[in-house]
Amino acid sequence: MSLDIAVIQAALVALVLILAVVTCIHAMLNKPDPRSAALWIVICLLFPLGGVVLYLIFGINRINRRAQRRAAGELLLTRPVPPPPDAIISSALDYDSLIRTTRRVTALPLVADCQLQPLFNGDQAFPEMLAAIERASNWIYLSSYIFDYRGVGGEFIDQLAAAQQRGVEVRVIIDGIGEWYDGGKTRRRLRKRGVNTRTFLPPRLLPPQLAINLRNHRKLLLVDGTIGFVGGINIRPQHTHRPNKPLQIQDLAVKLHGPILEQLTQVAMDDWRYVTGEQWAPAVPDQTTKGNTFCRAIPDGPEQTQEKLLAVMLAAIARAHHSVRIVTPYFLPPRELDAMLRAAALSGVDVTVILPAKSDHSMVHWASLHRLPALIDAGINIYFQPPPFAHTKLLVIDDSYVQFGSANIDARSLRLNFELVVESFDTEFTRQMTDHIEQVLHRSRRVDSAFLRRSWWKRVRNAACWLFSPNL
With contact defined as beta carbons under 8 Å apart, do 163 and 133 qualify? Predict the structure, then answer.
């Protein structure tokens, strides 16, 4: 009997070791970042059983095959991309190389006649969004990482349900991890009131869906194909001033009109098809808006063959003449972006990065602190913005180019999440964003490398967290 138990134990040990080796091989073959692959290999070799389980949950990208199967044989709204007209090239103020790069990366054209209106915090954004939903006559699409039923979230539920009742076609996608913030109550309340609400990749045991990464981090509201909202604001009461409660999260959304809405509608169609398997083709009317801004959508996700956002960021920073300004809540740039920022600063470009002084994810914040002294020594200006927590995502180049949307500057946004960013070429909108950044800088504190190096134990803590940065 004891011999049988010993044989079973040996067989189990052998099985776990085989699984660990297979997992290591999978990481080597499939991870694009050698640091990430090496980290998973070390974890699996040190903790064979636990490492395999963690890799199954966090490490495998299951998006590609599923997305390819869903997309096979289906028609897309995106039309063949013609070469951009000379008028666009000449009007975009010496950005022709960047325009060509982004067109090739995204396969989307740069479109003219767009209008952009910045909306700061939920106090400005939510009333505009609710008013647009109330005026809807044909269809509404809403995608949000977090949609909390409490506070202003209840107003959104009421307006979406009212639109559904008057015959508007309403579709809502909430991320499967993001909905944990309110325990899934928003999804249940919307469905109870007849709103077509779906969850993006909800973790479950049967059928197996264990991915904690690969989230839909996009924030997108489209109404009738005539108005859109893009940015970083989740639907949560923390984004607004409330009685006896201060604003807890600062953020930015942008209201859009014009031809860019066709590209944003394509993103909505693709996400809806991915989540449901259904082909949806909403009517997008011809855009009559005459704005002054050139725009292009940059959707990105782990199912893409290349890292679109990173490629466009690198191209934009490479053509900067005098300034690069970044506002982000999480700053763990990949090596390519780290090197490009330092090269820009060493060439004489004014590179400024604004981070929150206090983050809502301590481990990510500590990991970012590890790299800041080297960036400061290269001439990059680092500022800490005081509370409330700044969740804004902005990239401003010189006086004519802005990227805004949902993407942070970390591996999760640039490699693991589904994100949506819009690039714009326009001096007026860029001036508005520059003025906003100047106001933020006025109340922020510039950080020097000596301050970050003065505590040895914090340096050790930061470095330890940084080791996990490919997966934070």
Answer: yes
Q: pLDDT digit string (tens) for 270-302?
A: 999 999 999 999 988 887 778 889 999 999 987
Give the domain extent around 367: 308-471
Angle at 198 between CA 157 and CA 212, to 5 degrees: 115
C-alpha 306: how far from its chain's center?
16
Instruction: Say yes or no: 158 and 277 in one domain.
Output: yes
Residues 137, 167 contacting (CB under 8 angstroms): no
Shared domain check, 341 and 275: no
Residue 438 has pLDDT above 80, yes or no: yes
For residue 303, what pLDDT band results from cuts at 50, 70 and 90? low
Q: Which of 283, 218, 251 is nearest to 422 (CA)?
A: 218
Q: Which distant-in-sequence residues (6+ apart) come within 8 Å of 445 by Cβ?
A: 357, 383, 384, 386
Which residues lie closer than 8 Å to 186 by C-beta, 6 or more apart? 147, 148, 149, 153, 157, 174, 179
Rounded-to-integer distance, Cα 419 and Cα 412, Å: 10
91 located within any domain: no
Residue 206 lies in a domain: yes
| pLDDT tens profile 210-243 | 667 789 999 999 999 999 999 999 999 999 988 7
Tell me how far apart the alpha carbons of residues 133 and 141 are, in angstroms, rounded to a whole number: 10
| Residue listed under structure tokens 């989540």 | 275
pTM confidence score: 0.85
